[in-house]
Amino acid sequence: MKPTNRFLLVFILGLLSAIGPFSIDMYLPGFPDIAKDLNTTVATISLSLSSFFIGISVGQLIYGPLLDRFGRKTPLYVGLISYVITSAGCAMAASSHQLIILRFLQALGSCAGMVASRAMVRDLFPVNKTAKVFSQLMLVIGVSPIIAPTAGGYLTAAFGWHSIFIVLTIMVALILVGVHFYLPESRKADKNVSLKPTLIFKNYVNVLKEPQFITYAFTGALASAGLYAYISGSPFVCMQLFHASEKLYGWIFAIIASGLIACSQVNSFLLKEKKSEQIIKRALLFQSITAILLFVCTSFGLLNLFGTVAFIFVFLCCQGFIFPNSSALSLAPFTKNAGSASAMLGTIQMSIGALSSAMVSFLSNNTALPMTGVMAICATGAFSILLIGHTIIRYKAKQEDVNEETAEMISNL
């Protein structure tokens, strides 16, 4: 593959992966204005974030079999077009209930890009290169937390919160054009893939029977849930608890995200010397320690705005190492049903993310404790699952013959 073609391919796949994060991050600075305009509270508007996570979770399970049955691009077109329509609807929402429902429908469209991009990475690149490709995707995805909240803050201040969804509508319409003209079809339609509910369910069950998938999918999902807890809780913590302006919040969000991006690129260089299994274990240990310290310091009131931001910055730097490696290791055992595996991976991630986001809202007590507490639980839980999963993988390997690639992976646990 020519360098230019590879760059364009990864860039478009990154844009597809970034639709969901952009849809989440861009409207966060507008929460207070949305709540005021729709005569409700910020906590109620936060439920539109939870409904978005739920929509992505449900939608990915739908798109997985469709991507295996009809090829990658046809279901992708359907998802992107539906996103454009529902985003325009969000801009015209007249109540919090309408916004919550429309955000759910918007998520159903956005998840097509997320599932398709992961599946196409597995289609187009060798297994030993996928972690590096996911790190490169993070460079594109990571632009979202830098640009989106900052742009959302300025758009809200200048034109009102409705303009955020108008911009999202235009952005995805342009991505749709790029997909049509520049993204190759990585898998042809396969009529042998059944869309009968019982067989789809059986296929998903087979994915969940793979110990390597279970270990790294849930490890990555819980670690990512800490990120979603931060996303859900940070508007209140930064703008209401610490009285940061919308613009300052956007810049804080951007600075924190820059750490995640930088570390995802450092991960690419580390993969030349270290294995994904080794990197993710160290990153999770450090993230767990950071999250515990953040929660303890918050409990005793030792942190101001910038101290809190500093801890969160370190926490999310670890995510730059965890996400690409957990994604690559989760999908490595699959070839034929990579679409279904990708869908299940995304569903697990977003379901746990939605739960953590909802928990931050449910536990709201006018302090930063709900956000930092959920972040600590997610990080330590992810590290615990990784250690338990490694034990199960080793045990299974002793009970049956494994190929050379699996044997090498086990040696690095």
TrEMBL record:
Main location: membrane
GO MF annotations in UniProt: xenobiotic transmembrane transporter activity
Stated family: Belongs to the major facilitator superfamily. Bcr/CmlA family.
Taxon lineage: Bacteria, Pseudomonadati, Bacteroidota, Chitinophagia, Chitinophagales
Keyword Membrane: yes
Transmembrane segments: 7-28, 40-63, 75-94, 100-121, 133-155, 161-183, 213-231, 251-271, 283-303, 309-331, 343-363, 369-389
Name of the protein this chain belongs to: Multidrug effflux MFS transporter
InterPro entries: Efflux_drug-R_Bcr/CmlA, MFS, MFS_dom, MFS_trans_sf
One Pfam family this sequence matches: MFS_1
GO BP annotation list: xenobiotic detoxification by transmembrane export across the plasma membrane
